[in-house]
Fold this sequence. Notes:
- This protein is α+β, with helices and mostly antiparallel strands.
- It has 2 domains: about 5-275 and about 350-390, no CATH class; about 295-345, no CATH class.
- Helices cover about 30% and strands about 25% of the residues.
- It contains 11 helices and 19 strands.
- The strands form 4 sheets. Strands 1-2-19-18-17-3-4 form a 7-stranded mixed β-sheet, with helices on both faces.
- Helix 3 (about 80-90) runs parallel beside helix 9.
Amino acid sequence: MVKLKKVQPLDPAYLEKLGFTWHTDSDETPYIADELVLVTQKEAEAYYEAGNTLYDMFVEAAQYVIDHNLFHELGIPFNLVEQIKETWENDIHWHLYGRFDLAGGIDGKPIKLLEFNADTPTAVFETAVVQWAILQKNGLDEGQQFNGLYEALLDNFKRLVTLQEDVNDFEDRYEGWKFLFTSVRGNAEEENTVRLLQYIATEAGYITEFAYIDDIAFSPDEGIEYNGEQYELWFKLIPWEDIALEEPDLALLLTQIIENQKAIIFNPAYTLLFQSKGMLAILWQLYPDHPLLLETSFEPFASGKQVQKPIYGREGESVRILDDEGTIIEGEEGAYDNHKMIYQEYVELPRDAQGRYYQAGVFYAYEACALGYRRGGKILNNMSKFVGHMIED
Length: 393
């Protein structure tokens, strides 16, 4: 069983003071659990190693996809292919951060990759700030977490200029670059996540500004403009596949802006290769029987319990668990039913004494840097809870 430690929860007023406003779910229950998952130092180190190993594997797999022109297999919209190639080949297009969703790692269960949220991962605020604040408010040792996300993001923002591990010469190369941060209007969670990233970038030394996507002007020749200012750097918490499919004119403009070297976009277009769950099938082809992977295919398995997932999808939408005969035993119709599907070997998530399931989220920013958990049913959805963790002595 998953081991838990009861803690005094952070009250909503305190969370809102931190800038965390999405603390209560639509059913009026707290989104942040009043418990912490207890992990050992050895388990925390295993998550760290797994994140680093998996990222290297994704890099190799992405190169394989590009070399063999497998964009269609991964469901990559054709209007992003050139931008993906361009950003992949040029080191200035730096991957700022991503989050691996993992099964296992606790309760004696081996770590297995479920997917990689590489383009627009959320849970940054919960992982970097909220779970740390729980330790602080409960008088616990703030160092007893695998949680260096804030510091890792701070250093990685500097690497956008230095393009190397050492960030000590950031000030020597930094020339007052302006950084624009963007989300869609009307989504408090995404906006405050972006504003947290903006705050970290400001601390790193950039001149920053926030704007909603519909207030920005895009031009192949002028680049990215807001309120009369041009921005060399742009962060958008808007999925690349949504831009390609729903805003094709914008996708073309962004490709032209990149080709004309008018701006650098984060996360870069090539992270869509990582984001596509089709990459899970490519990884299995390249690394069959790797201990961190689950068997995954573009076609249903002839037998065995499996999970059907849309290549692009979020919050458990359109995910279904199939039994040995291919019959749906868990999951419902969802918003991503029209997407191409992949089929992944089923693995049961660790459970606590109440039968609730736990999925680990390991953030990657130049290296694996932080851990948090989501808790819910067999298929985690937008009603799943965030659960912090604590490393046992």
